[in-house]
Specification:
Radius of gyration: 11 Å
Distance between the termini: 28 Å
Number of helices: 2
Number of strands: 2
Helix content: 40-55%
Length: 40
């Protein structure tokens, strides 16, 4: 696993994605709807 951190610019771009619920410099939390759509 890489030890890559997200820059502020990358965080802003990812926050525009409706499937992203939250983001920090280390972790992306995806929306639960995306999770259920991938299971079906």
């Amino acid at each position: 696993m890489t030890k890559r951190l997200f820059t502020k610019k990358e965080q802003e771009q990812l926050n525009c994605n409706p499937n992203v619920q939250a983001i920090s410099d280390k972790v992306i939390t995806y929306n639960w709807v995306l999770f259920w759509l991938t299971l079906s």
